[in-house]
Every structure is written in C-alpha cells, then in structure tokens.
Amino acid sequence: MSQSMSNRVRSKTVALSSARAALVFGVGLALSAAAQTPSAAPAAAPPSPASQAIAVRKAIYTLIGANFKPIGDALKGTATYDSAELVKRATRVAYFAGLVQEAFPDVSSSGDTKAKAEIWTNRTDFDKRLRDFQTHAQSLVQVAANEVPSSDAFKAAAGAVGQDCKGCHDNYRAK
Ligand code: HEC
Asked: Which residue in 97, 87, 27 sits closest to 65, CA to CA?
C-alpha cells in the first residue's frame, strides 16, 4: 500500500467514526429531550403479579363451579341430565382441577382473595387435597361414562368430588 493510499484509508476511518459519534450524541440528545417531555396523563398502574394470579385463580374456580353444578344437581336429584352431558361436565372439572394446582403461587397469598393464609403454612395438606380433587374428578369422568346418573356408583363418585370441594372450602377458604 502506498503512503498516500494508507493516509486516505486512515482519514476515511476517522471520518466514519466521528460520524458515528455524532449520531450517537444526536440520539442521546433526542432521548433526553423525550425523557424530559412531561406525559399528558399518568399511565394507569399495571395490575400487580398478585392481583393477576388471584384473578386467574378465581376465574378457574368460577369455571369449576359452573361445570360442577349440573353434576351436583344430578347427585341431589333436583335435575336430570344424560350421561353425555355429565361426562362433558366432569371432563371439564377434571381439566380445571389440574390447572388450579398452578393457581396458588406464593405471590398470591394476600390481596383481594378468600384464600386463607393456612394454604401456604399447611402446604403439604393443601397440595394433597388438590391431588385428591383431581384424582376423584378423573374417576368421575370414567364412572359418568359407564354408569347411569341414578346409580350408586355415580353418586359415590360425584359425592367424593363434592366432599373435596366442601372439605377444602371449610379449611382453606374464608367465609
Ligand atoms: C384444595 C382446595 C379446593 C378445592 C378442592 C376446591 N376449592 Fe373452590 N376454592 C378454594 C379456595 C382457596 C377458594 C378461594 C379463592 C380466592 O378467593 O382466591 C375457592 C373459591 C371457589 C369459588 C369462588 C370463585 C370466585 O370467583 O371467588 C367457587 C365457585 C369454588 N371455589 C367452587 C368449587 C367447587 C365447585 C369445587 C369442587 C368441584 C371446589 N371449589 C374445589 C379451594 C378449593
């Protein structure tokens, strides 16, 4: 490389890097100007992780309640449903019973909730109740598919799930 060519390359490099510096400086100015512009209205605070988790939990239980209702009515004999309807409902309850196991993260122990603090201090017992609930709901799907709603087998299987709801509410849900 000749002396003059290498000088030219060097001065091109210097020109490029000072252009980059100017660009960065300019962007920096623009950003700090933007940061100083007062916003028109304060943005609403985003929902906290606790309130989001509690909202999800309540939604899951609302769906569990709505889908268990026909099963409870069939059990009490206050309404009649065909087996296909009861299988559909039981399948949903079993599905949501699996989801609810993820609905009690530590962050959700306080806030607008009826979940008692004992859930987090008696976690072993609480988790066992959740597993039993799911197991019983899964058995109910099988029984509802194979036995008529008036059968003792259906009543026993639906009754076991109903006891899981009641047992857990009595211990872990505030009135
Ligand atoms: C292992 C414990 C457990 C089991 C099993 C359980 N629940 Fe619950 N349930 C809770 C707790 C805790 C809450 C309170 C949730 C909250 O306020 O954050 C709740 C809340 C609810 C709610 C109110 C939801 C809302 O919007 O506030 C309904 C409805 C409900 N449960 C129905 C049922 C039914 C029906 C069953 C059985 C098929 C059942 N649950 C089984 C613990 C349980």
From this structure: 97
Which residue lies with its CA nearest to atom 27 of ligand 1? 58
Write the residue with the smallest CA distance to atom 7 of ligand 1: 165
Judge whether 168 and 129 are in contact, CB under 8 Å: yes
User: Cβ(64) to ligand 1 under 6 A?
Assistant: yes
pLDDT of residue 107: 96
Nearest protein CA to atom 21 of ligand 1, as residue: 61
Residue among 135, 115, 142, 125 nearest 61 (CA): 115
- Give me the pLDDT at residue 43, please: 82
pLDDT average, residue stretch 23-52: 65
| C-alpha span between 8 and 112 (Å, rounded) | 71
- Site to probe by mutation for ligand 1, drawn from 52, 67, 106, 173 as the one with most ligand atoms within 8 Å of Cβ, is 173
- Residue range 65-84, pLDDT digits in tens: 999 999 999 999 999 999 99
Q: How far apart are CA 43 and CA 97, in angstroms?
A: 37
